[in-house]
Write a structure and sequence with these properties.
The structure holds 2 protein chains of 2 kinds.
Chain A lengths: L3 E3 L3 E4 L5 E7 L5 E8 L3 E8 L6 E2 L6 E7 L2 E6 L8 E8 L7 E2 L3 E5 L1
Parallel strand pairs in A: 2-11
Antiparallel strand pairs in A: 1-3, 3-8, 4-5, 4-9, 5-6, 7-8, 9-10, 9-11
Chain B lengths: L3 E2 L4 E5 L4 E7 L6 E7 L6 E7 L4 E4 L2 E6 L4 E6 L8 E8 L7 E3 L3 E6 L1
Parallel strand pairs in B: 2-11
Antiparallel strand pairs in B: 1-3, 3-8, 4-5, 4-9, 6-7, 7-8, 9-10, 9-11
Classes of the chains: A mainly beta, B mainly beta.
């Protein structure tokens, strides 16, 4: 069965802290994505990766960076967390082509 | 500027009746459309999709209709069940490398028993 896991379900951090969100998929998928979900805005793409060590900016990359050292793992990094980064963060993976993306359960991040 | 719009934030339907969720898009280059369902505290799950070369796709109780000239698609759920209560997201893609999805804001569906 397809599985995408995220390191934390809930996270509380302070302004200025460096935050790591980890995502692991077990489907040998090529493509991986990071989104944030905010009320009234839907899901917005932060970054995506179509291969190991490859990354592309999404629609809202400012304040974020990513790392993909292994095919199964895609990390989202908040270099210096700010309160406007309080959100639900969702990771997804996809085999490639016009297929559906499989999502993890999400990480609810609160930045105080 | 949102390229994919779901103008109804919420919808309430009686169990057994039809639920119709609507989605409009502005980019005529989108070539593939998907619907996702999301329960609270869970990630979205894929529901149904449609290619731009088709105007209808059906999967059990779920049917998606695409009207390219109007840049409009809709999801029909018949009959609606209480377990269908969730947030429904419409998404569209230009295809190509990385298959970036553009999501709408979502519609909360409540099915009353």
């Amino acid at each position: 069965d397809v599985k995408v896991t995220q390191s934390s379900r809930y996270l509380v951090k302070r302004t200025g802290e460096k935050v790591f969100l980890e995502c692991v998929q077990d489907m040998d998928h090529e493509n991986m994505f990071w989104y944030r979900q905010d009320p009234g805005l839907g899901l917005r793409l932060i970054y995506f990766s179509y291969d190991v060590k490859m990354k592309e900016k999404g629609d809202i990359p400012e304040g974020y960076s990513v790392s993909r050292e292994k095919k199964e793992r895609f990390s989202l990094i908040l270099e210096s967390a700010s309160t406007n980064q309080t959100s639900m963060y969702l990771c997804a993976s996809e085999a490639g082509g016009p297929n559906e993306q499989f999502f993890g359960p999400g990480t609810r991040l609160t930045v105080l | 500027d949102q390229q994919v719009k779901q103008n109804s934030p919420s919808l309430s339907v009686q169990e057994g009746r039809i639920s119709i969720l609507n989605c409009d898009y502005t980019n005529s280059m989108f070539d593939y459309f998907l619907w996702y369902k999301k329960y609270p505290a869970e990630g979205p799950t894929f529901l149904i999709s449609i290619s731009s070369i088709k105007d209808k796709n059906e999967d059990g109780r779920f049917t998606v209709f695409l009207n390219k000239s109007a840049k409009h698609l809709s999801l029909h759920i018949v009959p609606s069940q209480p377990g269908d209560s969730a947030v429904y997201f419409c998404a569209a893609t230009l295809g190509g490398y990385g298959n970036k999805l553009v999501f709408g804001a979502g519609t909360i569906l409540r099915v009353k028993s």
